[in-house]
Amino acid sequence: MQSKLQELATEGMAWVSLGQVTAVEAHDSYSYLLTLSLVDDGRTVQARPMWLMGGRQGEGVYSRIEVGDEAVVLMPSADPNRAVALIGPASGPAKPPSGWANDKLELVDRGGVEVRTAEGATVQPVLLADLDTNLANALTEISALLKILGLPTPVTDTLVSQLNALNWRSAALKAE
Description:
By secondary structure, the chain is α+β, with helices and mostly antiparallel strands. It contains three helices and seven strands, in the order αβββββββαα. The chain has helices at about 1-10, 130-150, 155-165; strands at about 15-25, 30-40, 45-50, 50-55, 60, 70-75, 85. The radius of gyration is 25 Å and the shape is elongated.
């Protein structure tokens, strides 16, 4: 494959380089325009970001792009005006998360993850599994205190039993 890429590059058919993002700007036509400094010769190019896109408008997997991120820059027909940037080749500053064994899809972002089932769908807050136990314990204590005071707590008791019965590994989330 490397020899084919070199052959295409020498014929002026394609051009591939490693770049570093120096600016990220909003753009009307394709959401963002990136400015990149090419590692091999220091030239500056602008490119459209290329995410893992779906087949329809608004579908795909979109990740954050920041100044300093590495990218593979592709220039069809060696034309810098048509450049696209594939963000995030694995490298020293951008390795997969520790503990990931290349055996499943893992979505990780320091700002959290939003999952939408359609463009424009409302994103709902979600109770994470590690909060379930604390919430169930707190509600159990509140229920016990209210019962000591002679107050019935059927709603709280039902909620505690539902929290304790959740199977987090098979729960599906859908918010629209």
